[in-house]
Structures are given as C-alpha cells and as structure tokens.
Design a protein that fits this description.
Layout lengths: L4 E6 L3 H12 L3 E7 L3 H11 L2 E3 L2 H7 L4 E4 L6 H10 L3 E5 L6 H14 L3 E4 L6 H12 L5 E9 L12 H4 L3 H17 L2 E8 L11 E8 L4 E7 L8 E7 L2 E6 L3 E5 L6 E3 L5 H16 L9 H17 L6 E2 L8
Parallel strand pairs: 1-2, 1-4, 2-3, 4-5, 5-6, 7-10
Antiparallel strand pairs: 7-11, 8-9, 8-15, 9-10, 11-12, 12-13, 13-14
Helix pairs in contact: 1-9, 4-5, 5-10, 8-10
Length: 333
Amino acid sequence: MSEPVPFLLVGAGAIAQSYVQAMTDTGLARLIAVADPSAPAAKAIADRTGCRAYPSAEAALASERPQAAIICTPPSTHADLTVQLLEAGVHVLCEKPLAPDVRSARRMVETAEKKGLLLTMGSKFRYVGDVIEAKGLIRSGILGEIILFENTFTSRVDMSKRWNADPRISGGGVLMDNGTHSVDIVRYFLGPITEVQAVEGKRVQKLAVEDTARLFVRSESGVVANVDLSWSLNKDRDSYIEIYGSEGTVRVGWKESKYRHQSSPAWLPFGRGYDKVAAFRHQVENFVRAMRGEEPLLITSEDAIASVSVMEAAYRSLGHTEWARVERLANAA
C-alpha cells in the first residue's frame, strides 16, 4: 500500500477546515504543514492535526517537502501562489474560482503544463454522489431530450465583514463566489457553454459587489439553464438542481434526490443527499489518485479555465440586455 501523499495547506480560513477534515478521514493524504499570515489560525490547525505552521507558502517550502498543496486563499492570490508552488515542483488543488480572470488562469495552466504537474480546481459539488448519479440518469436517456436546467444557491449570509465582498480581493460578489460552482455544474451536465447573461438583483446588504443575481446560460447543445444566486434571500427549496427532459425530471436535493419518468405517477428516490465532508474527501482522493496515475482528474485544468471564461463573460453581460458570447479556449471542453 502506498504511503499517504504529504500536503501543504495554504490558507487557514473557513474552507480550509473542510480540507483538514477530508485529509483526516482519508488514508491517501497527510497534512504536513499549514501556511497563513494569521499565526493563531495556522496554529489552530497545526495543533489539531500535528502538522507544522508557517506564516507563508514560501516559508513552508523552505523547510518542508510537500508533493501536493491545497490553496484556500482569496481569488486575487490564486495565480501567484499556484505558480510559486508549481515552480517548486508541487501539484496544486486550488479552490474555486481558479482565478478572477482568464489571463491569470492561463498563466496557471501554462505553468502546470510546462512543469508536467497536475492543476485542478476545487469544486465540491462535482464529487457529490447524488450529482454523479444524476449525470448517469441523464446519460441513460431515461429523461429523453434535456430541455431545461435549473440551479439554486441562495441563503441569508451577512457578508459585510467578509473578504468575499471586497472586489479587489474576490474579483466579484455572489456571482463569482457561488456562481463558479453553478457554472461548473452546468458544464458537467450540459457540456460547453456558448452564451451567458447575468442580471443583478437588489443590493440589500449595500455591498460593493452584487449580493443577488440570476444567471442565464445557453449550452453548445442549445439547452438553457437558469441559475439563482443570493447571499440575501433563502428560497428554501429541497432541491438545488432540477433537470427537465422531454420524458421526465430529476431533482438533486440537500437531503434526498429523486427522478420521475412521465409514464410513472411516483418519484423514485436515489442517493443519500448532500454530504459535504464526503464531497471534500472524494475530491482529495481523486486528486491523489490522479497524481499516482490511477484515475483521471474529475476536474481538469481545462475545465477550470473554461469556468473562468464563462464567469468573465457573465460579468461583461451585467448591466446589458444582450447575451455575452463565451470565449472558446483551446483545449477547453
């Protein structure tokens, strides 16, 4: 049996805690160091896991020999940190969004290719069992021809004191934050996206960025998707993905998922609902197995840069009535 891969965790904020739990729960990864300019935050993780704490990735690399790193810092820092780690010979899993803009994302991907290392984007919903099962149902053809895709990520969260609401750090508001998950999910089910239109809602929280938005997406195959995003309202829906076909419907939910063929009066349940811990664990395990050549990355660097391209087009469309074309990038599916 192979030894666990030694990991460096860069960033010790809220999302980092999920990766700490994931590495605690799997035998494939071992956290050897955490880096964060906040000494108390880094120390808390170090004390919890027995790893060593450092004030920066540079300091950690000077003393440690990680094979892989997970970046859990704000988007404005992703490109420089990723390039630094790749240049040091470290495989990188970078939290979403890969970068706030395509130019930065290209730099990251090109560095990974030059160094012959893996680069993937953290996007937890791709690793949720129910989402994967729903994709299998679509592929089976039981729903017939897919007509409409809907995704809802809405909840009331006070963002007034969080870095996510500072566009210089985050690159945008709820559209950049939760919308990146949505775009990756839509691409997973429907394939390449050709056009988008984003409409901002009322800024209830008076932030410098959008706190409510609706995103309309058209796939290359002609399917339209509607995405509702908000930090200021909660639609309180049981499902966060609904897929409508000519022969039936699939609903992927927080607690249960189900589908119904038009010929049946009953919904048929499947899966176990949303398990955040399991999703992060599966994400880390896929990354490690891909490093070992045992299975392909579920989210390739081409997938990640394609998501950045869609988000860039979405922000171009804000405030306009026209759809924005998505730049088709070389090697991006």
